[in-house]
Amino acid sequence: MAPSLLPWFYVVQRFALALLTLFIISLTVFFACQLLPGDVAEILLGQAATPEAVAGLRTAMGLDEPAIQQYVNWLTGFLQGDLGTSYANRIEISELIGGRLVNSLKLAGVTTMISVPVALTLGILAAMYRGSALDRVISIFTISIISVPEFMLATFAVLVFAVWLGWLPALSLSSAEAQSWGELLKAYAMPVISLSIGVSAQMIRMTRAAVIETINTPYVEMALLKGASRSRMVLRHALPNAIGPIANAVALSLSYLVGGVIIVETIFNYPGVAKLMVDAVATRDLPLIQSCAMIFCVSYLSLITLADIVAILSNPRLRK
User: Fold this and answer.
1) Cβ pair 123, 211 in contact under 8 A
2) Which helix (H) or strand (E) holds 136?
C-alpha cells in the first residue's frame, strides 16, 4: 500500500470498527431490554386486564413475534430514522426525544466549553512545572475528585451552592427558554458545575501524563540542553507532538458525560434525554429506552472514533 494512503486506510478501519461495535451494542441494548421484569402489555393495561385483552395488545404491538424478528424490525426502522412509537406516551419517539436531545446537547456543549480550556491549561501547567507545589496541588485535587462518584459531586454542589450559600436553585427549571439570561444561567449552573468538575479532573490527569511523556523524549531534552526555556520547550516542541494523546484524553474525558449526565439530569430534574430514559425504565417503555441508549452509545463511539482519527492524522510517521 502506498505510504500516502496508509493514514486513510487506518481512518476507514476505525470507521468500520465503530460500525461493528455499534451493531454489537444494538444487540446488547435490545436483548437487555427484553430481560426487564414484567410484561409490557400487562403494565399498560393494568392489573384488571383480561388475558384476551393482553394477548390482543401484544399482537398489535408485535410482542408475540420471535425476539430476533423484533430486533430486525427495530434495527431496520432505526436505520431508516423511524424510532417507533412510545408505549407510555402514544406519540412518535423522534418527536418525544427531539426537544430533550436539544436540552442535553446544550448542557453538554456548555460543559465542554468550560471544562476543556480549564482542564487543558491546568494539565499543561502541571506537566510544565512537574514536581512543583502547583503540580502537587493540581494532582491532589484531581485525584480527590476522581475518587468521588458523580452523585456525591452533585449532592455536594447542592449542599454548598443551594443550601449553605443560597446562590443557586437546587433543581433546574424546565422552562429555561422563557427566562431571562440571569435565570437561564442559574438554571444551568448546578448541572454544569457538577459535570465540569468530574470531566475536568479526568482530563487534567490524562493531559498531564500525555505532555510529560512527550517531554521525556530525546528531541525535547535536546531542546532543553540547547537553552530553550521551559515554556518554549513545552509549547513549541512537546505540545504539537502530544496532540494525538491529548485528543484521546479529551475524548475519553468527554465520554464521561455519557454516564455522568444520566445521574446529573436525574438529580437536578433537568429535562434532557437521560432523564427521559430513566422515566422510560420506570414505565418499561422499551422502544424509548432502546432509542435513548443508542443515542448515548453513538455519542460515545463518535467521540472515541474522532479521537483515533485525530491521533492518526497528527502522527507524522503515519502520514509518511
Assistant:
1) yes
2) helix 133-146
Measure CA of the first residue to CA of the last residue in the chain; give whole Å: 12
Residues 6+ apart with CB under 8 A from 260: 150, 194, 195, 198, 199
Q: What is the mean pLDDT of each run of 10 residues along the chain (320 residues)?
A: 61 84 87 74 68 74 77 83 77 81 81 86 85 88 82 80 76 54 72 83 84 76 68 69 73 70 78 81 80 84 79 62
The pLDDT assigned to 315 comes to 62
pLDDT value for 314: 67
* Per-domain residue ranges of the chain: 3-36+94-319
Q: Give me the architecture of the 3-36+94-319 domain, per CATH.
A: Orthogonal Bundle (1.10)
pTM of the model: 0.73
The tally of CA atoms less than 13 A away on the side-chain side of residue 294 is 25
Cα–Cα dist 7/111, whole Å: 32
Q: Find all residues with CB under 8 Å of 283, minimum gap 6, and list them.
A: 43, 87, 88
Q: By the 8 A CB rule, do 184 and 257 touch?
A: no
Q: How far apart are CA 24 and CA 297, in angstroms?
A: 11
Report the pLDDT value the prediction gives residue 176, as an integer from 0 to 100: 44
Return d(Cα 74, Cα 230) in angstroms, integer: 57
Contact 40, 284 (CB under 8 A): yes
Q: Which residues pair with 92 in a beta bridge?
A: 85
Of residues 29, 31, 28, the one with CA closest to residue 67: 31
Among all chains, which residue has been given the C-alpha cell 485525584? 143
